[in-house]
Amino acid sequence: MADMTDHPGYDARKDDFLRRLRRIEGQARGLQRMVDEDKYCIDILTQVSAMTSALESVALGLLDDHLHHCVVGAAAAGGPEAEQKLAEASAAIARLVRS
Amino acid sequence: MADMTDHPGYDARKDDFLRRLRRIEGQARGLQRMVDEDKYCIDILTQVSAMTSALESVALGLLDDHLHHCVVGAAAAGGPEAEQKLAEASAAIARLVRS
Amino acid sequence: MADMTDHPGYDARKDDFLRRLRRIEGQARGLQRMVDEDKYCIDILTQVSAMTSALESVALGLLDDHLHHCVVGAAAAGGPEAEQKLAEASAAIARLVRS
Amino acid sequence: MADMTDHPGYDARKDDFLRRLRRIEGQARGLQRMVDEDKYCIDILTQVSAMTSALESVALGLLDDHLHHCVVGAAAAGGPEAEQKLAEASAAIARLVRS
């Protein structure tokens, strides 16, 4: 499974994730501008909710790729590494659900 | 209530919110770097969860200030504007809870 | 504000809330039946998500009524009680957003 | 993989899940009693948050068992069923994160 170490699960969609994260960075800058210009609280909150959804969507995409590549790879290989990958994935899912 | 129009509810904590949003913008850049450098999916997801929590925390702060200033101001003044402010606040809370 | 003490904010929609909570109780029983009958995990998870949404919806309704009645009443009266009601409402919102 | 069809992923922890779901059913009944007795909105909301957390915890447990058993089993077997199981799991995770 040398392949697994060299390329992360999201490799094929790397450009897509980078593009989405750049847009999220832009949303963070837009929020600063809104606060700086004393925009109405509710309008800022609407943008925060949009940014949270965009971030959640990136997380779900990364997790999906992770399950498809790393977890499946480890499951096919079996052994203690498979167990560790599953425990890691479950912990990451729990953090997402609770955050 | 000219005051309410000129200064948003978060006015007193504006610098604090700007500082937190700059840090969130930095987290978005850090995530791009991690993806670009092929970091491990689970480590990226951990950072996404941290960023989501930071964003949620900003949202709760803005909402708290909004309730303290705009909603209380409108409630004291009464009339249809009070009702509109409450409906807006409830809708913003629902978006946060569901996002 | 004796009225505020005698009747909670959700008084006018009490029957509606009771009906929705009975349905949620039924969903909890339905989940036990599914687990008992060894139903497929994913189908159970779909029902859990539906139940969580129903519960969230009750929470948002209760919060909306609370803001309209208790918080507005306290804000109109002013003083330390108003501040306490707002702090309580903000803490309840934070628990909902984070749960 | 006849085993996979006969017993769901949560089989070993079935009694634990049933016990937790019975407690959640009890929380739903407790909420009805609180509403019926005109308890204070904020106290009801605190119980709703506790119930939502308990439900989320059951969901994360079921999902963890599902990944360990069904998804790993399908991944080891490979083929189109593996892909379908992963797509299902990802969709269930997305519903949980967004609910």
From TrEMBL, chains A, B, C, D:
GO cellular component: a single term: cytoplasm
Protein known as: CopY family transcriptional regulator
Major site of localization recorded for this protein: cytoplasm
Pfam name, any one: Trns_repr_metal
Family, per entry: Belongs to the CsoR family.
Entry superkingdom: Bacteria
Keyword hit for Nucleotide-binding: no
One MF term in the entry's GO annotations: DNA-binding transcription repressor activity
